[in-house]
Design goal:
Elements lengths: L4 H12 L8 H16 L4 H4 L1 H9 L1 H19 L1
Helix pairs in contact: 2-4, 2-5, 4-5
């Protein structure tokens, strides 16, 4: 099995920049609704919830879930 070069670079970057207090996917998912609501309210969730922001920049799967939730809630707020 061959691993793509960009995936290897991302893994190495994540290892080198890992934080001792970083959260995993389960904890990120638990906090994601609050993170999205803050963004929809015009607040800065990245400052208030730095660990969630950090995880979303590192994890493509959680980022995809975040973007889908954000889009869905934007449509609900507009309706």
């Amino acid at each position: 099995m061959k691993i793509e070069s960009r995936k290897v670079k991302r893994m190495v970057r994540n290892i080198l920049t890992a934080r001792p207090d970083e959260i995993g996917c389960a904890e990120c998912f638990e906090r994601m609704d609050r993170f999205v609501e803050m963004e929809l309210q015009g607040k800065c969730p990245a400052e208030a919830m730095a660990l969630v922001e950090d995880h979303l920049t590192r994890c493509a799967d959680c980022r995809e879930e975040y973007e889908a939730l954000l889009e869905a809630l934007r449509h609900l707020h507009e309706a």
